[in-house]
Amino acid sequence: MVSMETPICEFGKPAIDFALPGVDGRTWTLEQCRGPNGLLVMFICNHCPYVKAVQERIVRDTKELKDYGIGSVAIMSNDPTDYPEDSFDNMKRVAEQFGYPFPYLYDETQEIAKAYGAVCTPDFFGYNKNLELQYRGRLDASRKETAPPDARRELFEAMKQIALTGRGPEHQIASMGCSIKWRRS
Q1: Is 3-179 a CATH 3.10.450.50 domain?
Q2: What is the pTM of this model?
Q3: How far is CA 185 from the centre of its chain?
Q4: Which residue has the higher pLDDT, 121 or 3?
Q5: Which of 3, 28, 53, 82 has its CA 20 to 30 A from that of 180?
Q6: Nearest-angstrom CA–CA distance, 117 and 115
Q7: Neighbouring residues of 110: CB distance < 8 A, sequence distance ≥ 6
């Protein structure tokens, strides 16, 4: 497991369109996932301890962000060959277990992760209503262990600000997680 940090936010970079299969049997596009005030695109997986540490908080925050007009989507881009816990069947199981209130999509070709520049799980991309990037930071102070319950909700606060003003915070702390498991060429 290689630990990685996300790059700094490229303010204004447009969201990349996609059409990916979801664990619900539907194919989802960028347009179908967005909310009237923005979109949170999350690259996550099932096996990563950094994701496991925040799964319940992701569910909580994405549910609350709906009230601010922010849509959310999670994309799993890992190659499950060496990580069977990340298989599509296990994606279905995890989404059901945690009650994911957002589409959980499989990027089998890994083209979407590459197009977004995703480097780790979790990797968060927060867009305004014009689908311009405004946040590329962490959820909170959690690492492989969940941060204390009173930890500042950095992602939630940033996305709420984006919903209300169209702009993300100037200061963002990079997300940290396991490297995306790229296919061997």
Answers
A1: no
A2: 0.96
A3: 25
A4: 121
A5: 28
A6: 6
A7: 77, 79, 180, 182, 183
